[in-house]
Design goal:
The strands form 2 sheets. A 7-stranded parallel β-sheet has the order 3-2-1-4-5-6-7, sandwiched between helices. Helix 6 links the parallel strand 6 and strand 7. The chain starts with a strand and ends with a helix. It is of the alpha/beta class. Helices cover 45% and strands 16% of the residues. It has 2 domains: 186 residues, Rossmann fold (3-Layer(aba) Sandwich), CATH 3.40.50; 177 residues, Glycogen Phosphorylase B (Rossmann fold), CATH 3.40.50.
Length: 378
């Protein structure tokens, strides 16, 4: 079986982790995998680094339709049995070529498509309707949570076209980390031994709610001196986040570490912080939490998207209401006050993720679906 994965190539965060993990695991299932991208970036660099074949047909701008014929020709000459799309750009290009492509195409919904361009009004007005229309043309859509499947059905998508496959993460290899001293040195922070460290790893975009996290931090800082905060990530809301820190006099309590691309450094983050948080307004099945689970890190997250399917409240971690600063602060405060509970939740989340959300299980289910899609044909 030969599967071509079509994605923009400029992806970061969870989508990047998902696709690269999936392709690497599919190779272990004796599937011939390759990538088709329309731009170069960290994604394509990391794919090549792990030995994935990467084909790039450059699209300079979203409205550069000259690539359509090139992409169609490439797919038809590639010898692939199925094309698996990821993301809005791949979806809308597929809209124009799927009737001319010889093999079946499917797509994975990694996020709520109505929120993908929330931080850019112009893009939201133009590309959200296009992606919505394109999604409805696929005969097969994979969703990474039951919540997303339910959302699509409520929006008029046919249930028989939808399949749920949870994101998966590797548990069959040792997690590589730096020493604690080296980790703090690399993020340019001097660790204070008497402090508890609460972190968030997320792009600084509105949907991720990092501003809410910082406002919860401000609540905690007013009542406790023993907790410091780390923010990993960058994006359009950086200036707003810095303003929140400045207005609440948290400059010596909150450290903005910027975007981290080193996977060993990320593993170190999840290993050496005390509480991992994610305060998003919308989520799919976030790797920022699965990676924390693999390192047995205690977790506070908002109960949105597939997160309640991943974390059982008060068993694997604590779930808070989206956008509720007081509730998020309360949950963080609880875990920072109880080291035994942090250990208990971290162990429970690790065991649950290892049993139910492994990369090998994700790949096996994809292989099964590919076989069914190929058998059905176009």
């Amino acid at each position: 079986m030969k599967v071509l994965h079509f994605i923009s190539g400029g992806d970061t965060g969870g989508a990047k982790t998902h696709v690269l993990t999936l392709l690497d695991e599919l190779r272990k299932q004796n599937i011939d995998v390759s990538l088709l991208c329309i731009m170069e970036g960290i994604f394509t660099e990391e794919a090549r680094a792990i030995g994935i074949e990467v084909n790039v047909i450059l699209q300079q701008k979203r409205w550069d339709f000259s690539v359509m014929e090139k992409i169609k020709t490439f797919i038809n000459n590639s010898g692939c049995d199925v094309v698996h799309c990821h993301g809005a750009r791949a979806n809308y290009i597929s809209l124009f070529i799927m009737n001319s492509v010889k093999v079946p195409m499917l797509t994975t919904l990694h996020s709520d498509y109505k929120l993908d361009f929330k931080d850019n009004i112009k893009k939201q007005l133009i590309f959200t309707p296009i992606n919505s229309f394109a999604l409805r043309k696929f005969r097969h859509i994979l969703t990474v949570t039951e919540a997303f499947k339910k959302m699509l059905i409520e929006r008029g998508f046919k249930e028989e076209r939808l399949r749920v496959i949870y994101n998966g993460i590797r548990f069959d290899e040792d997690v590589k980390t730096y020493t604690e001293e080296e980790f703090f040195k690399r993020i340019k922070l001097i660790k204070q031994q008497d402090k508890i460290y609460v972190g968030i790893a997320a792009r600084l975009f509105a949907v991720k709610g990092v501003d809410v996290f910082l406002k919860a931090a401000a609540v905690i800082c007013k009542k406790r001196e023993d907790i410091n905060f780390i923010v990993l990530g960058d994006g359009d809301m950086r200036a707003e986040c810095e303003n929140i820190i400045r207005e609440n006099n948290m400059g010596n309590r909150v450290h903005m570490a910027g975007q981290i691309t080193d996977p060993v450094l990320m593993n170190s983050y999840y290993t050496y912080i005390d509480v991992n948080t994610l305060t998003s307004h919308s989520e799919s099945f976030p790797y920022a939490l699965l990676e924390g689970a693999r390192c047995k890190c205690a977790t506070v997250a908002t109960a949105v998207g597939g997160i309640p399917e991943m974390i059982r409240n008060e068993k694997d971690g604590l779930l808070a209401k989206s956008g509720d600063v007081a509730d998020i602060a309360r949950c963080i405060d609880i875990l920072c006050s109880d080291p035994e509970k942090r250990k208990q939740y971290g162990e429970s989340f690790y065991n649950r993720a290892k049993e139910s959300f492994s990369a090998s299980a994700m790949a096996k289910k994809h292989k099964q679906i590919y076989e069914e899609v190929i058998k059905i044909g176009k």
